Amino acid sequence: MEHDYFYSLTPRVFYNIQVGYNQKEDNYFKNSWLQVRELMFAALRPYLKNQNAKSSSLFRFDWEEETSPIETEEITTAEQAEKVLQEQKEFWEKMDQRRSKANANVEQDGKFSTDKYPL
Predict the structure, then answer these.
(1) Are 91 and 103 in contact (CB under 8 A)?
(2) What's the rounded Cα separation, in Å, for the pair 39 and 108?
(3) Is the model's pTM score more than 0.70?
(4) Among candidates 37, 27, 25, 26, which has minimal Cα distance to 61?
(5) Long-range contacts of range 28-36, CB-CB < 8 Å, 24 or more positions apart?
(6) How far apart are CA 63 and CA 57, in angstroms?
(7) CA distance 115 to 101
(8) Closest CA to 118 of 101, 14, 15
(9) Residue 17: CB partners within 8 Å, gap ≥ 6?
(10) Among 42, 60, 59, residue whose Cα is nearest residue 51
């Protein structure tokens, strides 16, 4: 990254670049280890008792841990659906009010302060 370009970035844009770069490096790391596991599995497959085994059954990586699904409430009645819909509307109206207050603050002061109106 060039010097002038770095100093022209906003903190949000720099953060997005940093997150993207870290994800790219993480994916590269994971892919290289997946390739090693596949090569090892290909070499061991003729000697395995279970010929239907998968490469992930030999050893699992930390990032491959099974996660439990998120528990959600089942909506079975129209009243429950209406209640959930109303809660969502109230939440987004509240967020819109906060954003409009923050935008009004920017227009008045010419700068934005997250201390007054956290998003």
Answers:
(1) no
(2) 63
(3) no
(4) 37
(5) 30/61, 30/63, 33/61, 34/61
(6) 14
(7) 12
(8) 101
(9) 1, 9
(10) 42
Return the residue matching tokens 């819109």.
Answer: 96
At position 105, the amino acid (one-letter code) is N
d(CA 115, CA 98): 12
Question: What confidence tens digit (pLDDT) does each residue in 27-74 have?
Answer: 999 999 999 999 999 998 888 888 888 888 888 888 887 666 667 777
Contacts of 98 (CB under 8 A, 6+ apart): 117, 118, 119
Smallest CA-to-CA distance from 59 within 43, 39, 44, 37 is with 37
Is 111 in a helix, a strand, or coil?
coil
Structure tokens at 94: 């509240």
Cβ neighbors of 106 (< 8 A, separation 6 or more) are: 112
> For residue 118, which amino acid is it?
P
